[in-house]
Amino acid sequence: MEAVNDLVTIQALSSFWNKTQFTIGIDDTPGTSNHDRTQEISSELYRNLVEEAVNRWNRVLHRQDIQTSFPNASQINFDILDHADGTEDIHVTWWEQNEMNGLTLITPLNDLVANYAIILIAKHKQGSIWHNSDQIHSIVAHELGHVLGLGHVTRWGHNPFTNDLMITGTGNQPDPLRRISNLDLRLINMRFGARTESDRRNFTSPISIPSSEWQNLE
């Protein structure tokens, strides 16, 4: 039996989706001089960082081996709209500064099903972290994990260290080296496979795997 400190554990959030095809609208916010205190982040760079985070998810979800191992998860796709027009499923926008790096807000259709999501990304963390491009990209990818129902990795093994995308509260957070893992996909696959009200109400989390089985899928 694996020792507790040799398990990687992830929580699930409460909302499910009745869809697998998601549209994303990006708020074209003007640039700010707060970007790592020296470099101005333009609206174009901001949009590019969000797009690359979205593409990270699409690249993993659409791989052939993922279709075989995680068939429910592989049906998910993110499509970025040219403009945020209010019709999108997920709206990405800025906080000027906040004590958190990012936040995902889910608008429910009912007590089980999500209807709309807003992702808020902090340009810089209040009083401490000034986010650079790599960190902003990492925050967006992490928040998209929340949209898909992933909570945080609450415990992880240290040999090897598992730099899961959904890790939070580390000294380097938001760590740009965080990666989408087989643990993340396992939970997403389970959640998108729960399609009936009974399955969703009886869904249990967290789930765990031995740290030796944790894999970076990127």
Number of strands: 8
Number of spatially distinct domains: 1
| CATH architecture type | 3-Layer(aba) Sandwich
How would you characterize the largest beta sheet? Answer: 5 strands, mixed
Secondary-structure class = alpha/beta
Our measurement of the CA-to-CA distance between the termini, rounded to an integer number of angstroms, reads 29 Å
- Look at the structure and give the CATH class: Alpha Beta
Classify the helix fraction into a percent range: 25-40%
How many helices? 5
Radius of gyration: 17 Å
Instruction: Enumerate the spans where pLDDT stays under 50 for 5 or more consecutive residues.
Output: 32-39
* Average pLDDT reading: 85
- Which sequence of SSEs, written as H and E, runs from N to C? EEHHEEEEHEHHE
Give the strand order, joined by hyphens, for the main sheet. 3-2-4-6-5
**CATH homologous superfamily descriptor:** Collagenase (Catalytic Domain)
Which short descriptors sum up this protein?
single chain; 5-stranded mixed beta sheet; alpha/beta; 3-stranded antiparallel beta sheet; 5 helices; Collagenase (Catalytic Domain); globular
